[in-house]
Amino acid sequence: MTTDETRSAARRDLLRFLLRSPLLWAAAGVAPSVQARPELAVPASAGEALDVFQIERLARQKLGLPVIHYIANGADDGKTVQANRDAFDAWAIRVRRLVDVSQVDAGVTVLGERLPVPVILAPAGNQQSIHPDGELATARAARASASLMIASTVSNHSVGAIAGAAGPLWFQLYASPDRRLMEKLIRDAETAGCRVLVLTVDSNTRGNREGEAWWARATAGRQPPLPLGNFTGYDGPPRVGDMALTWDIIDWIRAHTSMKLVLKGIVTREDATLAAARGVDGIIVSNHGGRQEESLRATLTCLPEVVEAVAGRLPVLIDGGFRRGTDIFKALALGASAICIGRPYLWGLGAFGEDGVSRVLAILRDELKRIMQFAGTTSVGAIDATRLEHRVQGSHPS
Ligand SMILES: Cc1cc2nc3c(=O)[nH]c(=O)nc-3n(C[C@H](O)[C@H](O)[C@H](O)COP(=O)(O)O)c2cc1C
Question: What's domain 65-390's superfamily in CATH?
Answer without folding.
Answer: Aldolase class I (3.20.20.70)
